[in-house]
Structure formats: structure tokens, C-alpha cells
Amino acid sequence: MNRALLVLHIWQYMSLLLLTYIGSKQNHSVHRNAFVSFIITSMGHMLVFLLLFKVGRSPLSDRDKYSLQLRTSFVAVHFISFFLSLYVYWRHNSYCEPYAYSIFGILEYTVILSNIAYHTVQVVNFQDDYYISIAHPTGLKHT
């Protein structure tokens, strides 16, 4: 299960890189496929992580419970806004209703921001931990 989580995480970021560097006007099919890949892997990663977090860790500390509560909330926002955006996009294409595409755009941003917020919760898990990186005082030594 941990390997699945790692694969989903890497695949999610590779898809996001494709989305970032290949615009829909440059190559629409690649951009579309990267978006679909990003959505599938981000949702998969969220679900697998929550499953592992709930099943694999007991008992949960107060910090872990808070982290789980935040992540669960962001996952709910992510899923609801994504499926609402699909519906609004369909309404836009089917009926060309006023403001439908604007609402779609807002929901699309909500999907992205909820994904960012989900990953930012990691700060809660490491808030009291310190990481030190030490470099050799003279720089890299050549041998």
C-alpha cells in the first residue's frame, strides 16, 4: 500500500509538471490527458493516504487527529468541487448558460487550492520537528 501511495504521489507531480509546461493551446490532447491523470492520481493519493493514516496508526495523538480532520475536510472539498465542476462544465457545453463557465473556473481553482491545502497539512505533522542540513565547511571535497 505504501508503494501505491508513492507511485500515485510521483505520478501526480509528473502530471502537474506536464500541465504547467504544456498549455491547452499548445497541445490540447496532452494537456487534457495530463489533467485527467493529475485528477485521478491526486484523488487516489488522497484516498490511499487517508486509508493508511486511519488503519495503520493507532492510537492517534491529538496532533494526528487534528491532521486527519484537516485532511479529511480538504479531501471532501476537493471531491465535491471536482464533481460539481464536471456538472457545471456539462451544463455550459449543453445549454450555454450565462456564467456557467465562470462558475466552472471558480470550481477548478477550488480543486487546485484544496489539493494545495491538503498537502500543506504536512506542516502540522512536523511542526515541532527540526531538520538540520550540514555542509562541509570548505565545500565539496574532490577526491
Describe the protein in words.
The protein is mostly helical and 143 residues long. 76% of the residues lie in helices and 0% in strands.
**For the report, how would you describe the main beta sheet?**
none
Into which percentage range does the β-strand content fall? under 5%
Listing every helix as H and every strand as E from the N terminus to the C terminus, the arrangement reads: HHHHH
Count helical runs: 5
pLDDT averaged residue by residue? 88
Shape label: globular
SS-derived structural category: mainly alpha
List strands and helices in order, with pairings.
Elements: H1 2-21, H2 28-56, H3 62-95, H4 100-120, H5 122-125
Helix pairs in contact: 1-2, 2-3, 3-4
Sum up the structure in keywords.
globular, 143 residues, mainly alpha
How would you summarize what this structure contains?
The protein has helices spanning 2-21, 28-56, 62-95, 100-120, 122-125.
